[in-house]
Amino acid sequence: MRAVGGDWRSSLLANSEWDICDTQYCARSGGLSAFRDAMSSAFMPWQIEYTEESEFEARMVCGSSEYGAIARVAMSPAVSTRKSAEIAKSASDCLYGSYVISGELVVEQRGRTTIARRGDLVLYDSALPVKLIEVSTGLYEDMAIRIPKEKLTPVRDQDAVLGNVVISAEQMITPLSSALSFLAQNMAVTTAQELHALQATCAALVPVAALRSYTGSEQADEVSATPNYYTRELARFIDANIGDAMLSPRSAAQHLGISVRYVHKQFAAKGTTFGTYVTDKRLEFVRQDLICEACRHHPIFAVAYRWGFNDLSTFIRAFKKKFGCSPREYRLTFL
């Protein structure tokens, strides 16, 4: 087998089943860009910042299947981020994981910071902003994992259990530890069939291992002590913009730097939808204004418009459905 020059895709080894990006085959100034493109292709968009004076080095051996992607990575320590721009360009919601082989990984997500060390597995959510800080005196090394959420074994409290949580080497269940250790040592010689089986194993075992590690841990205490950060911030954003007719899941997602899918998921967990939640709040404000002494002589359409309704017939139908009468009839009962 041989490596050839050009962009990262041309760094593939001939006849290999793996995608291999190695910066030694890139132009000196193009190594970071090539690695970022390779990482973004396999793991959805990321930004990678490297500020050291020394040349950036990286090698990634990556395989993928219906269970996502997994890669053996060795790289100069850098800072990797996913912000609103990268999240918006992502095709699906996934669970990320980093199984640390050498060095440390600092993860900032969900308003807290975790640190994964050698042998630890840290999990974080593709739908939320995240910052990864790699720390090492030499090359930082890990197994990078991406699993589509629909492939994961369902567990209770899934968002908390799988969101910026560390499974320590001591707490990790043996089958998962063995699968990750095997891949870390044998990635380049693993067959496509073996990779598929090992990825399926990870998809099945990671949530189980995370739940076992999470339950009763300090991480669980920390998460349960405060409401879900994004649930709280969504409510605040809606309250601040309830009168804006353009308020939408997309505008909320862009403001918070999260995916639209994650916004919908937060409301689905409460048994409702974004639209229903917003409409109910607007109708309640309208109801209060209709009988308020200061607003009693304001036209009904003006009250509705003030609270974000820009179509009168739609507003009247929604009001009747919620309160059992028209806005005019409701107001008359309090005159």
UniProtKB/TrEMBL annotation:
| The entry's keywords | DNA-binding, Transcription, Transcription regulation
The keyword rRNA-binding is annotated on this UniProt entry: no
Q: In what residue span(s) does the HTH araC/xylS-type domain sit?
A: 232-333
Show the InterPro entries listed in the entry.
AraC-bd_2 (IPR035418), AraC_XylS_family_regulators (IPR050204), Homeodomain-like_sf (IPR009057), HTH_AraC (IPR018060), HTH_AraC-typ_CS (IPR018062), Tscrpt_reg_AraC-type_HTH (IPR020449)
Entries under Gene3D superfamilies matching the protein: Homeodomain-like
Top-rank taxon of the source lineage equals: Bacteria
Family annotation (SUPFAM superfamilies): Homeodomain-like (SSF46689)
Question: Could you cite one Gene Ontology molecular function of this protein?
Answer: sequence-specific DNA binding
Q: Which Pfam families match?
A: AraC_binding_2, HTH_18
Q: Which PANTHER family match?
A: ARAC SUBFAMILY (PTHR46796:SF6), HTH-TYPE TRANSCRIPTIONAL ACTIVATOR RHAS-RELATED (PTHR46796)
The protein here is known as AraC-type DNA-binding protein
What organism does this protein naturally occur in?
Hyphomicrobium facile
